[in-house]
Amino acid sequence: MEDFYTIQGEGAHTGRPAYFIRTAGCDVNCWWCDVQESWDESKHPEVKVGDIVKRAKESGAEFAVITGGEPLLHDLDPLTMRLKQEGLQTHIETSGSSPLSGYLDWITLSPKRFKKPLEDIFPYVDELKVVVLKNKDIEWAEKNAAKCPEGTRLLLQPEWDTPSSMDLIVEYVKEHPEWGISLQTHKFLGVR
Ligand code: SF4
Protein backbone atom coordinates (compact mmCIF):
# COMPACT_ATOMS: atom_id res chain seq x y z
CA MET A 1 0.00 0.00 0.00
CA GLU A 2 2.79 2.42 0.93
CA ASP A 3 6.29 2.59 2.35
CA PHE A 4 7.93 5.56 3.98
CA TYR A 5 10.57 6.65 6.48
CA THR A 6 9.13 7.83 9.78
CA ILE A 7 9.29 7.44 13.54
CA GLN A 8 7.96 4.33 15.24
CA GLY A 9 5.10 5.89 17.15
CA GLU A 10 3.97 3.11 19.47
CA GLY A 11 5.07 0.05 21.38
CA ALA A 12 8.45 -0.99 22.75
CA HIS A 13 10.45 0.79 20.02
CA THR A 14 8.61 4.11 20.31
CA GLY A 15 10.63 7.10 19.18
CA ARG A 16 13.09 5.22 16.97
CA PRO A 17 13.34 6.11 13.29
CA ALA A 18 12.02 3.25 11.18
CA TYR A 19 11.16 2.43 7.58
CA PHE A 20 7.46 1.55 7.48
CA ILE A 21 6.16 -0.92 4.92
CA ARG A 22 2.38 -1.09 4.88
CA THR A 23 0.99 -4.06 3.01
CA ALA A 24 -2.48 -3.99 1.47
CA GLY A 25 -5.32 -6.29 2.48
CA CYS A 26 -6.93 -6.98 5.85
CA ASP A 27 -9.64 -9.45 6.77
CA VAL A 28 -9.90 -8.57 10.46
CA ASN A 29 -12.21 -5.55 10.10
CA CYS A 30 -11.79 -3.75 13.44
CA TRP A 31 -14.49 -1.08 13.50
CA TRP A 32 -12.07 1.51 14.97
CA CYS A 33 -9.35 0.83 12.35
CA ASP A 34 -7.65 4.04 11.20
CA VAL A 35 -6.30 2.53 7.96
CA GLN A 36 -9.51 1.18 6.50
CA GLU A 37 -8.25 2.15 3.03
CA SER A 38 -5.81 -0.76 3.41
CA TRP A 39 -8.52 -3.43 3.63
CA ASP A 40 -9.16 -4.01 -0.06
CA GLU A 41 -5.93 -5.31 -1.56
CA SER A 42 -7.23 -4.94 -5.12
CA LYS A 43 -7.31 -1.15 -4.73
CA HIS A 44 -3.51 -0.98 -4.45
CA PRO A 45 -0.88 -1.65 -7.09
CA GLU A 46 1.61 -4.50 -6.85
CA VAL A 47 5.08 -3.28 -5.91
CA LYS A 48 8.38 -5.10 -6.48
CA VAL A 49 10.12 -6.31 -3.32
CA GLY A 50 13.44 -5.04 -4.71
CA ASP A 51 12.08 -1.50 -5.07
CA ILE A 52 10.81 -1.40 -1.49
CA VAL A 53 14.07 -2.79 -0.13
CA LYS A 54 16.09 -0.25 -2.13
CA ARG A 55 14.09 2.64 -0.67
CA ALA A 56 14.35 1.18 2.84
CA LYS A 57 18.11 0.83 2.52
CA GLU A 58 18.51 4.36 1.13
CA SER A 59 16.51 5.81 4.05
CA GLY A 60 19.30 4.91 6.46
CA ALA A 61 16.85 3.28 8.91
CA GLU A 62 18.20 0.56 11.19
CA PHE A 63 14.99 -1.39 11.01
CA ALA A 64 11.88 -1.84 8.94
CA VAL A 65 8.39 -2.21 10.40
CA ILE A 66 6.08 -4.34 8.31
CA THR A 67 2.51 -3.44 9.10
CA GLY A 68 -0.83 -3.31 7.39
CA GLY A 69 -3.47 -4.05 6.72
CA GLU A 70 -2.67 -7.52 7.96
CA PRO A 71 0.88 -8.27 6.74
CA LEU A 72 0.60 -12.02 7.32
CA LEU A 73 -1.89 -12.29 4.47
CA HIS A 74 1.30 -12.18 2.39
CA ASP A 75 4.27 -14.55 2.31
CA LEU A 76 6.87 -12.32 3.95
CA ASP A 77 9.87 -14.58 3.30
CA PRO A 78 11.20 -12.76 0.18
CA LEU A 79 10.76 -9.25 1.59
CA THR A 80 12.25 -9.96 5.01
CA MET A 81 15.13 -11.98 3.56
CA ARG A 82 16.10 -9.12 1.27
CA LEU A 83 15.77 -6.52 4.03
CA LYS A 84 18.07 -8.55 6.26
CA GLN A 85 20.57 -9.05 3.44
CA GLU A 86 20.73 -5.25 3.25
CA GLY A 87 21.41 -5.02 6.98
CA LEU A 88 17.99 -3.90 8.22
CA GLN A 89 16.33 -5.53 11.18
CA THR A 90 12.82 -6.71 10.50
CA HIS A 91 9.87 -5.97 12.77
CA ILE A 92 6.25 -6.87 12.22
CA GLU A 93 2.97 -5.70 13.71
CA THR A 94 0.29 -8.30 13.23
CA SER A 95 -3.01 -9.57 14.55
CA GLY A 96 -1.55 -13.07 14.15
CA SER A 97 -4.74 -14.28 12.47
CA SER A 98 -2.97 -15.66 9.38
CA PRO A 99 -0.03 -18.11 9.22
CA LEU A 100 3.33 -16.73 10.28
CA SER A 101 5.98 -16.17 7.60
CA GLY A 102 9.16 -14.14 7.24
CA TYR A 103 12.60 -13.82 8.84
CA LEU A 104 11.66 -11.57 11.70
CA ASP A 105 13.71 -9.96 14.48
CA TRP A 106 10.79 -8.54 16.43
CA ILE A 107 7.19 -9.69 16.48
CA THR A 108 4.52 -7.42 17.91
CA LEU A 109 1.27 -9.29 18.33
CA SER A 110 -1.81 -7.11 18.51
CA PRO A 111 -4.55 -9.70 18.86
CA LYS A 112 -8.11 -8.83 17.90
CA ARG A 113 -11.22 -10.45 19.32
CA PHE A 114 -12.90 -10.12 15.91
CA LYS A 115 -10.47 -12.58 14.31
CA LYS A 116 -8.38 -14.38 16.86
CA PRO A 117 -4.65 -15.11 16.51
CA LEU A 118 -3.56 -18.58 15.41
CA GLU A 119 -1.86 -20.57 18.17
CA ASP A 120 1.40 -21.00 16.19
CA ILE A 121 2.52 -17.41 16.64
CA PHE A 122 2.62 -17.32 20.45
CA PRO A 123 6.07 -18.92 21.00
CA TYR A 124 7.64 -16.21 18.83
CA VAL A 125 6.01 -13.10 20.28
CA ASP A 126 8.40 -10.38 21.54
CA GLU A 127 5.76 -7.77 22.34
CA LEU A 128 2.06 -8.09 23.08
CA LYS A 129 0.21 -4.85 22.45
CA VAL A 130 -3.51 -4.82 23.10
CA VAL A 131 -5.80 -1.95 22.16
CA VAL A 132 -8.20 -1.27 25.02
CA LEU A 133 -11.65 0.31 24.88
CA LYS A 134 -13.27 -1.38 27.88
CA ASN A 135 -12.74 -3.94 30.63
CA LYS A 136 -13.42 -6.83 28.30
CA ASP A 137 -10.30 -5.90 26.33
CA ILE A 138 -8.16 -6.20 29.44
CA GLU A 139 -9.52 -9.70 30.01
CA TRP A 140 -8.63 -10.42 26.38
CA ALA A 141 -5.13 -9.03 26.95
CA GLU A 142 -4.55 -11.31 29.94
CA LYS A 143 -5.82 -14.34 28.03
CA ASN A 144 -3.25 -13.69 25.31
CA ALA A 145 -0.45 -12.82 27.72
CA ALA A 146 -0.84 -16.24 29.32
CA LYS A 147 0.19 -17.82 26.00
CA CYS A 148 3.25 -15.61 25.37
CA PRO A 149 6.83 -16.54 26.32
CA GLU A 150 8.34 -15.26 29.56
CA GLY A 151 9.92 -11.85 29.06
CA THR A 152 7.42 -10.70 26.42
CA ARG A 153 6.86 -6.94 26.65
CA LEU A 154 3.24 -6.54 27.73
CA LEU A 155 1.59 -3.29 26.66
CA LEU A 156 -1.90 -1.88 26.84
CA GLN A 157 -2.77 0.88 24.43
CA PRO A 158 -5.77 3.20 24.77
CA GLU A 159 -8.03 3.43 21.75
CA TRP A 160 -7.42 6.96 20.42
CA ASP A 161 -11.08 8.03 20.26
CA THR A 162 -12.10 6.45 23.58
CA PRO A 163 -10.71 8.74 26.33
CA SER A 164 -12.25 6.63 29.12
CA SER A 165 -9.87 3.82 28.17
CA MET A 166 -6.94 5.86 29.55
CA ASP A 167 -8.19 5.85 33.17
CA LEU A 168 -8.96 2.17 32.87
CA ILE A 169 -5.44 1.38 31.69
CA VAL A 170 -3.65 3.63 34.18
CA GLU A 171 -5.44 2.02 37.13
CA TYR A 172 -4.88 -1.48 35.76
CA VAL A 173 -1.16 -1.00 35.14
CA LYS A 174 -0.64 0.46 38.63
CA GLU A 175 -2.06 -2.75 40.06
CA HIS A 176 -0.40 -5.05 37.51
CA PRO A 177 3.14 -3.72 37.01
CA GLU A 178 4.05 -6.49 34.58
CA TRP A 179 2.06 -4.43 32.05
CA GLY A 180 3.11 -1.08 30.58
CA ILE A 181 1.32 1.55 28.51
CA SER A 182 1.79 2.20 24.81
CA LEU A 183 0.61 5.51 23.36
CA GLN A 184 0.20 6.48 19.71
CA THR A 185 2.86 9.20 19.96
CA HIS A 186 2.98 9.69 16.18
CA LYS A 187 -0.48 11.23 16.48
CA PHE A 188 0.80 13.76 19.03
CA LEU A 189 3.85 14.45 16.86
CA GLY A 190 1.73 14.82 13.74
CA VAL A 191 3.71 12.24 11.76
CA ARG A 192 2.06 9.34 10.00
S1 SF4 B 1 -6.11 -5.66 12.05
FE1 SF4 B 1 -5.19 -3.61 11.85
S2 SF4 B 1 -5.49 -3.05 9.67
FE2 SF4 B 1 -6.85 -4.78 10.11
S3 SF4 B 1 -8.81 -3.84 10.64
FE3 SF4 B 1 -7.72 -4.19 12.58
S4 SF4 B 1 -6.59 -2.29 13.00
FE4 SF4 B 1 -7.23 -2.25 10.81
From TrEMBL:
Q: In which pathway does it act?
A: Purine metabolism; 7-cyano-7-deazaguanine biosynthesis
Keywords carried by this UniProt record = 4Fe-4S, Iron, Iron-sulfur, Lyase, Magnesium, Metal-binding, Queuosine biosynthesis, S-adenosyl-L-methionine
Q: Which PANTHER family match?
A: 7-CARBOXY-7-DEAZAGUANINE SYNTHASE
Record-listed S-adenosyl-L-methionine binding positions: W32, C33, D34, G69, S110, P111, K112
Annotated residues that bind [4Fe-4S] cluster are located at C26, C30, C33
E.C. designation(s)? 4.3.99.3
Q: Which cofactor does it need?
A: S-adenosyl-L-methionine; [4Fe-4S] cluster; Mg(2+)
In Gene Ontology terms, what is a biological process of this protein? tRNA queuosine(34) biosynthetic process
Reaction catalysis annotation:
6-carboxy-5,6,7,8-tetrahydropterin + H(+) = 7-carboxy-7-carbaguanine + NH4(+)
Q: Which residues bind substrate?
A: I7, Q8, G9, R22, T67
Per the record, the similarity remark reads: Belongs to the radical SAM superfamily. 7-carboxy-7-deazaguanine synthase family.
Ranges for domain Radical SAM core come to: 13-192
Domain of life, per lineage: Bacteria
Q: Which CDD domains match?
A: Radical_SAM
Q: What is this protein called?
A: 7-carboxy-7-deazaguanine synthase
Check the record and name the InterPro entries matching this protein.
Answer: 7-CO-7-deazaguanine_synth-like, Aldolase_TIM, rSAM, rSAM_sf
Record function comment? Catalyzes the complex heterocyclic radical-mediated conversion of 6-carboxy-5,6,7,8-tetrahydropterin (CPH4) to 7-carboxy-7-deazaguanine (CDG), a step common to the biosynthetic pathways of all 7-deazapurine-containing compounds.
Q: How is the cofactor bound?
A: Binds 1 S-adenosyl-L-methionine per subunit. Binds 1 [4Fe-4S] cluster. The cluster is coordinated with 3 cysteines and an exchangeable S-adenosyl-L-methionine.
Record's subunit section = Homodimer.
The reply to whether Transcription regulation figures as a keyword in the UniProt entry is: no
Alphabetically, the GO molecular function entries are: 4 iron, 4 sulfur cluster binding; carbon-nitrogen lyase activity; magnesium ion binding; S-adenosyl-L-methionine binding
* Entries under Gene3D superfamilies matching the protein: Aldolase class I
Q: Which Pfam families match?
A: Radical_SAM
